[in-house]
Design goal:
451 residues; alpha/beta; TIM Barrel; Methane Monooxygenase Hydroxylase, Chain G, domain 1; eight-stranded parallel barrel; two-stranded antiparallel sheet; 10 strands; binds 2-(acetylamido)-2-deoxy-D-glucono-1,5-lactone
Length: 451
């Protein structure tokens, strides 16, 4: 059983295209249905959340926000409003605090009770004037956050108040982002009632071990709330994550004050993430991510009705396996990759049935792409479209290469790709930029050897 004040839900905290009003309302329906209790509003896309944090919202901007707050409250969902003033705030200037209060008062009038101040993704240093006033960045951030929290607490005792530190994962802490001893200073100075957000060992953490959180708890003098970027896809436009919530042992829940997932920008692609995450939060006994994933994919299938023939379960499973987790492909996608690797490496006559298997899988993906284009739910199609397009195009290229190899061509020789959408496929400025360096599987960078 989770503690009644455990925050389990969604942070809309990504860069780029934010969710639409209708998508947010739909999300609240789903959250209530699967037992998630918190929506944290922090889209980097809202100019007044970050860049223009000083400017009050207009009435036209407040109206839809008010609808969201109401919709949450009707469903028993906590609405947390986040403000990110860190880009250019003058911590020692009292007028800046008043500006934060003015914004929070605007949100209070809409019925918001829970607030957050975010200091993520900042250069991590103080202005000249603030350097005179504070010994460290952490001291400055804690001072302002405590002041705002104190002001708010007088009006709403018992409301939640969250703080996102500048180093918000072990890796950042390791590089001393924000200055030496940043987290220890936060532990010491930040008011004990304020929750601290944390993304785990990395910004996008494959695993969040309990002992890493226990060590952090010592330093922060409180259990953190996880801002979980496992499913965030704002950093790579050819990916999205439809795999299961995993890499977090069930015991982790007891070590925390909450977990909020910051998922895919493409709202419709969050079905499996939301479902499996909610199940994880309520799970008892053992957590079997793949099992829960397969069940969730099956339950997602009815959304894949098309104007002609519906998508089959094995197609949807293959598709989601290809867009699984940040550092892991689903088993079917992993097997597909291994198959291609074997086919490219082995001499033609040792292929056995691999080639036929590849041809069958390729046809399945090409047909799957056609089915997606016929989806009744156009929002769902739009969410998949660019990724699915890239998938089928890349497979067409591979099919061409492997067919060439079978026919006895030397596939190492340049020229084969020229036949595929001659002059436009995998071209353009970004593609050329990417060609200057290569990354190995650990992310190490080196200059591409010149031909
Ligand atoms: C981040 C950003 C977040 C972004 C995510 C994934 C936090 C606290 N901040 O660092 O806005 O969506 O990475 O790119 O996670």
């Amino acid at each position: 059983m989770l503690a009644p004040d455990f925050l389990g839900g969604v942070v809309e905290g990504f860069y780029g295209q934010a969710w639409t009003h209708e998508q947010r309302l739909h999300l609240f329906e789903r959250m209530a249905a699967v037992g998630l209790n918190t929506y944290f509003y922090a889209p980097k896309n809202d100019l007044k959340h970050r860049t223009l944090w000083r400017e009050p919202y207009t009435d036209a901007e407040l109206r839809p926000l008010g609808d969201l707050v109401r919709a949450c409250s009707e469903r028993g969902i906590n609405f947390i409003y986040g403000l990110s003033p860190g880009l250019d705030i003058h911590f020692s200037d009292a007028a800046e605090r008043e500006r934060i209060e003015t914004r929070f008062r605007q949100m209070q009038q809409l019925g918001v009770r829970h607030f957050a101040l975010l200091f993520d993704d900042l250069p991590g240093n103080l202005s000249e004037a603030d350097r005179q006033a504070y010994p460290t960045l952490a001291a400055a951030q804690c001072d302002v956050t405590n002041a705002i929290h104190g002001w708010w607490r007088e009006q709403e005792a018992g409301a939640r108040f969250l703080f996102c530190p500048t180093p918000y994962c072990d890796r950042m802490d390791g590089t001393q982002l924000g200055g030496e001893g940043y987290l220890d200073t936060v532990g010491e100075l930040l008011h004990a009632e304020i929750d601290v957000l944390w993304t785990g060992p990395e910004i996008v953490s494959t695993e969040i071990p309990v002992d890493s959180i226990e060590r952090l708890t010592q330093r922060l003098r409180r259990r953190p709330v996880i801002w979980d970027n496992l499913f965030a896809d704002d950093y790579d436009f050819s990916r999205c994550f439809c795999g299961p919530y995993s890499g977090r042992p069930l015991e982790l829940r007891q070590a925390l004050r909450g977990i909020l997932i910051n998922p895919n920008n493409e709202y419709p692609l969050n079905f499996v993430p939301l479902r499996t995450f909610a199940e994880y939060l309520h799970a008892e006994g053992e957590w079997r991510p793949r099992e829960r994933y397969l069940k969730a994919v099956a339950d997602w299938l009815p959304s894949y009705k098309t104007v002609i023939q519906p998508l089959a379960l094995e197609d949807l499973t293959l598709l989601c396996d290809c867009f699984y987790l940040p550092r892991q492909e689903g088993p079917e996608a992993a097997a597909f990759l291994a198959l291609v690797e074997r086919l490219l490496a082995e001499p033609v006559d040792q292929r056995g049935t691999d080639y036929e298997r590849f041809v069958a899988l390729n046809s399945q993906v090409q047909a799957l792409f056609e089915r997606l284009t016929e989806l009744n739910d156009r929002e769902l199609f739009n969410a998949w479209s660019r990724r699915a397009w890239e998938l089928k195009e890349e497979l067409q290229v591979l099919a061409m290469v492997l067919a060439g190899k079978k026919a006895g061509y030397d596939i190492e020789k340049p020229g084969m790709l020229d036949q595929h959408h001659s002059g436009i496929f995998r071209r353009g400025f970004l593609t050329r930029l990417k060609q200057f360096v290569v990354l190995d599987s650990n992310g190490a960078v080196r200059v591409r050897p010149r031909p």
